[in-house]
Design a protein that fits this description.
With 320 residues, the protein is α/β, with parallel strands linked by helices. It is built from twelve helices and eleven strands.
Length: 320
């Protein structure tokens, strides 16, 4: 990693997609094609390589799979920093394969800000949505120069949600007092255990509306072709309807889009991956299972707690 040292050792892996694809094509041809056809394929590879060298345009592909906390931002921020330090703006391009139903405001605000770095540096940014880019996910997607959606991908949900259970009546039934001390009139508006006042609820709803307005202004800034009042209702749409509403620019899967780029461009996939531990290197299955299961279980637990027990506003569609 570059600027932020991770607790779990990680490394950035760069794969040349053209070479990977040609290797697989050659393996199939060696089994199914004649010697003459295999020679033709080899010549085609050389011709494509010369064409790519002449074009001299590189495509960098990143992946963002979002959870409630937008924890994938820890990887994509480093990958973007690497691109900004090595690629040439105005010539090279960036493609982000995005999948997210949204989540916490500050997490997705930071994730969107990372993509803004690419736009501000002059890179053409394409975002591909194969499954879902809703709420905070769409806030990230709207920054792109071009948004490409699969025909049945879920897009939109420009809204803000916050939910918090209240146990005040249950505490009263069991004669349990809950005392909350604050300094500042609106330091705490609604709570899980106290009795929420009408003034506190009104202030909390006002803050939600302010957050929604910020969300709308942000989307409108990067997608001025949108009728923001029509689409900022918290609703989501599937691919074709999203295209009709100008939420996306084209209907196509990321696979089809990237495959079309290979003949004329050098395409590189940049991924951040966790380094194997000593136990994994020695082939200790128990260590592999523990290292994989414990972080995943803890992350799932944290996400569920945040989802059901927070009063923080979230750019998230809870239907997904």
């Amino acid at each position: 990693m570059l600027f932020h040292l991770p607790k779990v050792p990680a490394e950035i892996c760069v794969s040349h997609l053209n070479a990977r694809m040609n290797e697989q094509r050659k393996k199939i041809a060696q089994t199914t094609a004649s010697k003459f056809e295999l020679l033709q394929l080899t010549q085609q590879f050389s011709k494509e390589a010369r064409s790519r060298k002449k074009t001299n345009q590189k495509i960098y592909v990143l992946d963002f799979k979002g959870d409630v906390q937008a924890s994938a931002v820890e990887n994509i921020r480093e990958e973007i920093t690497l691109i900004l330090a090595t690629a040439k703006a105005g010539r090279d391009r960036v493609v982000v394969r995005l999948e997210s139903p949204g989540g916490m405001v500050h997490g997705y605000g930071l994730a969107a800000a990372q993509l803004v770095r690419l736009r501000d540096a002059g890179f053409h940014l394409t975002i591909c949505v194969d499954k879902v880019a809703a709420s905070g996910g769409y806030m990230m997607a709207c920054i792109a120069s071009e948004i490409i959606s699969a025909p049945f991908a879920i897009v939109g949900s420009i809204g803000v949600v916050a939910q918090v259970p209240n146990f005040n009546r249950l505490l009263k039934e069991h004669h349990v007092d809950f005392e909350l001390y604050t300094a500042g009139e609106f330091k705490r508006t609604v709570t899980m255990f106290g009795e929420n006042t009408a003034e506190g609820k009104a202030k909390f709803e006002e803050e939600l509306q302010q957050t929604h307005n910020l969300f709308k202004h942000f989307v409108e800034k990067y997608r001025p072709q949108l009728n923001i009042e029509k689409v900022a209702t918290g609703e989501h749409w599937y691919g074709q309807d999203a295209l009709d509403l100008n939420l996306v620019d084209k209907l196509q899967t990321s696979d089809e889009y990237i495959l079309a780029l290979l003949a004329q461009h050098d395409v590189y996939v940049i991924q951040t991956r966790r380094k194997p531990t000593l136990g994994e290197k020695l082939g200790l299955q128990a260590a592999q299972m523990a290292d994989a299961f414990i972080p995943a279980a803890m992350n799932k637990l944290v996400n569920e707690v945040i989802k059901h027990n927070t009063a923080l506003p979230m750019f998230k569609d809870n239907r997904f």
